[in-house]
Design goal:
Structural class: alpha/beta
Keywords: Kinase, Transferase
Strand order of the largest sheet: 5-4-1-8-9-10-11-12-13
Distance between the termini: 31 Å
Helix content: 25-40%
CATH architecture: 3-Layer(aba) Sandwich
CATH topology: UDP-N-acetylmuramoyl-L-alanine:D-glutamate ligase
InterPro entries: PfkB_dom (IPR011611), Ribo/fructo_kinase (IPR002139), Ribokinase-like (IPR029056)
GO cellular component, one term: cytosol
Strand content: 15-25%
Organism: Sphaerisporangium melleum
Largest sheet: 9 strands, mixed
Protein name: Sugar kinase
Number of domains: 1
Length: 319
């Protein structure tokens, strides 16, 4: 196994374009409705699997029909979902996403079984046996805020496993708990709002520097249409977003993580990994759902696309 994703698993129901909620019993006709496997762990795992990367996922779903559907979707795309446990009495986490014509994505969300996932549910051998462990949504998987899990991550890293992490929410009250994971993480990939909230910094460069001081060897702050900021001990760089007709921004962060991890597996430098993440996120933004635009895409093709676009990417000084 190359990658293990741990954390948030969600069923997304997406519809577009939605300009307003119908009054009373009225009906609005739409262009598209999709159901996808999403969440910071499941969404990243599906994107990796679709690139041909061997990947397993660990987390929790309910013992319900939505859980059946989520596991089926993951396994259909090639994710080893045996590490996903069923929680009787809990609903599988789900979101309804009415996508606006400009790609904006308000949501209706039930956190469900993600809140019930605990360290005792995790097989330690999955962690120590992976080349890369991706922590997806540690701000909301409170059952993993456990000294035993921190010890396991430390042991895995000493054995050569690389640990990446991103977050799910932008809730200030959850940021302090997520910060506790940083000493056990090699590469941290928050979005701009999360980076500012977790540090209290006034700007993204200040936030990235503060996060580096917590332990990671690199911090990659995604900036939406502005691309991303890449920070290491050697300095910072900017990787602009690629031009794309945005349909839906759902899952772009997960795609960025999947592209970044694919680069790590290929032995790429951090900045090159960020470029792979940028390309994959742009593909997802052009369609509906967290795995849109990935049909026929492989890790090799992703690398080729990144090289094609590298002349248009303007890196800053220091890396």
């Amino acid at each position: 196994m190359n990658v293990l994703t741990i954390g948030v698993h969600i069923v997304d129901v997406l519809a577009r374009p939605v300009e307003s909620i119908p009054h009373g019993q009225d009906t609005h006709l739409l262009d598209q409705i999709r159901v996808t496997a999403a969440g910071a762990a499941a969404g990243t795992a599906v994107d990796l699997a679709r690139l041909g990367v061997p990947v397993a996922s660990a987390g929790a779903v309910g013992a319900d029909e939505l859980g059946d559907l989520l596991l089926m979707l993951m396994e259909r795309h090639g994710v080893d979902a045996r590490g996903v446990v069923r929680k009787p009495g809990e609903q599988t986490a789900a979101s309804i996403l009415p996508i606006r014509p400009d790609g904006g994505r308000p949501s209706f969300h039930v956190p469900g079984a993600n809140l019930a996932y605990a360290f005792a549910d995790l097989d330690p051998a999955l962690v120590t046996g992976a080349r890369v462990v991706h922590l997806g949504g540690m701000d909301v998987t409170w059952g993993l805020h456990d000294p035993g899990f921190f010890e396991l991550l430390g042991a895995a890293r000493r054995g050569g496993t690389v640990v990446t992490m991103d977050l799910l929410s932008t809730m200030p009250d959850l940021m302090a708990g997520a910060r506790a994971f940083l000493p056990y993480v090699d590469h941290f990939l928050p979005n701009e709002e999360q980076a500012l909230l977790i540090t209290g910094a006034s700007g993204v460069e200040e936030a990235a520097a503060a996060l580096l001081a917590e332990g990671p060897s690199s911090v990659l702050v995604t900036l939406g249409a502005e691309g991303s900021l890449v920070a290491t001990a050697a300095g910072t760089a900017r990787v602009p977003a690629l031009p794309v007709q945005v349909v839906d921004t759902t899952g772009c962060g997960d795609a960025y993580c999947a592209g970044f991890i694919t680069g790590l597996l290929g032995g790429r430098e951090v900045l090159d990994c960020a470029r792979l993440g940028t390309v994959l996120a742009s593909r997802v933004a052009g369609g509906l759902g967290s795995d849109a635009g990935l049909d026929g895409l492989t890790a090799e093709r992703l690398d080729h696309l990144a090289h094609e676009n590298v002349q248009g990417l303007h890196a800053g000084e220091g890396i």
